[in-house]
């Protein structure tokens, strides 16, 4: 995968001026949560943006509030201030309909003291309601205000004209470098494919050195953001004693060095909002946050379910784990706050036993003891995550799959209910991520679930899939004389059996 370092443009302003709406407009999708109430955004969020062909990385930030540094709004302001370090440009957004406020002037004063070039954005400028506010913007001494309506997409051309002189040269140079790198990568891929075809081997569907998409999920206050900050060795995400601080799912690209091999690996760390029991989630914003977290799970490769060592395993944890497995993601579980755990040995064994009982559909899910404070166990967990993704993405050679299938049938032939044999003819792998297999045969509607489970367990044990979700479906040949069934056969569990 080509790693691109796009020019970075930070969006700054007080609460409720439309920063997240502008961010979503620039990236072309609803990545950031948007609501009428102020203070929705708390952590800074990044996304690849495009503006009339000009590509850059947009950064959404929390609303700037004049509060004590130790308070939650004060810590959010500190995150916004840090976001400007290393940025190529800033978009200072104010509400043209409300006009300038003392807080806008405070932000402008701070921005003038920075070295980053600033484009002044007069948002909500649709119609005539923002004309006086646009004129007020000139008093800030930051150049001509750019009238924009982030909600309706107005003012895009003017914004492009103001932004291009600041980042255009770098963006064009980057595009040239990326084209050259992609050409080299395509040539190498073609050589690997030709070599595999000559050797009669199947080419791997995934590059093992590709970035790992790793989502961290769990109940509120389990330490998800603290753990990611520890890995990054910086206060990238907002943390604190308050429950439910994280709202948006935040993705951060990070370069991890494997201490065992010294190899550098790219990981996309995804922080998510805490997931409480559904009955307790009544606030609109919390519902949006949980939905955003579940979408992050759907697009992750490996998901780490983080437990709180001071609370152990709860029913909600099992529900979250089941959801991850239903989506076919590779799952691992980490017990956080191990540095303050009481009777750690009994805790670990108890959680292990409860997981094997509560997640009967997939026993042996990897379990780790970690500490976001001391860093204990984090490298071990990350190394295991790459191995888990490898199993989750692996395709079994056809010859090895057929050998296993023949051995499994010989060791334990299918039953013959009513004296009529169930014939299992052959098996094929139809996909990966998660691994998916189809068995073809006759009278498959009569095959007991216990025998399917026998085959599924054999697949995992003999073919090295370990504790990753595996889909197994059964399919019969079409019977033109069977009008009721239409020859469709049986598909285990609706979604395939894990």
Automatic annotation (TrEMBL):
InterPro entries: G_ENGA, GTP-bd, GTPase_Der, KH_dom-like, KH_dom-like_a/b, P-loop_NTPase, Small_GTP-bd. SUPFAM superfamilies: P-loop containing nucleoside triphosphate hydrolases. One of its GO terms (molecular function) is GTP binding. GTP 1 binds at residues 13-20, 60-64, 123-126. The keyword Nucleotide-binding applies. Gene3D superfamilies: 3.30.300.20, P-loop containing nucleotide triphosphate hydrolases. Residues 485-498 have a biased composition (Gly residues). Keywords: GTP-binding, Nucleotide-binding, Repeat, Ribosome biogenesis. Residues 7-171, 212-393 form the EngA-type G domain. GTPase that plays an essential role in the late steps of ribosome biogenesis. This is GTPase Der. It comes from Aurantiacibacter gangjinensis.
């Amino acid at each position: 995968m080509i790693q691109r370092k796009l020019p970075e443009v930070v969006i700054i302003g007080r609460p409720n001026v439309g920063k997240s709406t502008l961010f979503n407009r620039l990236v072309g999708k609803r990545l950031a949560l948007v609501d009428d109430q102020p203070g929705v955004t708390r952590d800074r969020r990044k996304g690849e943006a495009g503006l009339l062909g000009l590509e850059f990385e947009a950064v959404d930030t929390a609303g700037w509030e004049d509060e004590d540094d130790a308070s939650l709004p004060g810590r959010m302001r500190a995150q916004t201030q840090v976001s400007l370090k290393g940025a190529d440009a800033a978009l200072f957004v104010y509400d043209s309909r409300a006009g300038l406020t003392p807080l806008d002037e405070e932000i402008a004063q701070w921005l003038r003291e920075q070295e980053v070039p600033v484009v002044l954005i007069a948002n909500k400028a649709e119609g005539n309601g923002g004309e006086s506010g646009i004129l007020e913007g000139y008093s800030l001494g930051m150049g001509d205000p750019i009238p924009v309506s982030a909600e309706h997409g107005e003012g895009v051309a003017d914004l492009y004209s103001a932004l291009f002189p600041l980042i255009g040269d770098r963006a064009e140079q980057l595009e040239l470098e990326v084209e050259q790198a992609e050409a080299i990568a395509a040539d190498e891929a073609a050589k690997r494919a030709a070599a595999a075809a000559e050797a009669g081997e199947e080419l791997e569907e995934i590059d093992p050195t590709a970035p790992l998409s790793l989502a961290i999920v769990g109940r509120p206050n389990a330490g998800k953001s603290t753990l990611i900050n520890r890995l990054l060795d910086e206060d990238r995400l907002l943390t604190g004693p308050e429950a439910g601080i994280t709202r948006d799912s935040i993705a951060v690209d990070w370069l991890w060095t494997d201490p065992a091999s010294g190899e550098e690996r790219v990981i996309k760390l995804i922080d998510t909002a805490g997931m409480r029991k559904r009955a307790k989630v009544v606030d609109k914003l919390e519902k949006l946050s949980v939905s955003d977290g579940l979408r992050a799970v759907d697009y992750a490769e490996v998901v780490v379910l983080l437990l709180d060592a001071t609370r152990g395993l709860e029913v909600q944890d099992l529900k979250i784990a089941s959801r991850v497995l239903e989506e076919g993601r590779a799952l691992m579980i980490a017990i956080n706050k191990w540095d303050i755990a009481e009777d750690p040995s009994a805790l670990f064994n108890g959680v292990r036993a409860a997981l094997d009982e509560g997640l009967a559909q997939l026993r042996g899910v990897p379990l780790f003891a970690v500490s976001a404070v001391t860093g204990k166990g984090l490298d071990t967990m990350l190394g295991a995550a790459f191995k888990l993704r490898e199993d989750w993405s692996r395709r079994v050679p056809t010859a090895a799959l057929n050998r296993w299938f023949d051995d499994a049938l010989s060791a334990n032939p299918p039953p013959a209910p009513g004296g009529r044999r169930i014939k299992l003819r052959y098996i094929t792998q139809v996909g990966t991520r998660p691994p998916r297999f189809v068995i073809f045969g006759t009278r498959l509607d009569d095959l007991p679930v216990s025998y399917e489970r026998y085959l599924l367990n054999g697949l995992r044990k003999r073919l090295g899939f370990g504790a990753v979700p595996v889909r197994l479906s059964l399919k019969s040949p079409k019977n033109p004389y069977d009008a009721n069934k239409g020859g469709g056969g049986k598909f285990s569990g609706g979604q395939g059996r894990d």
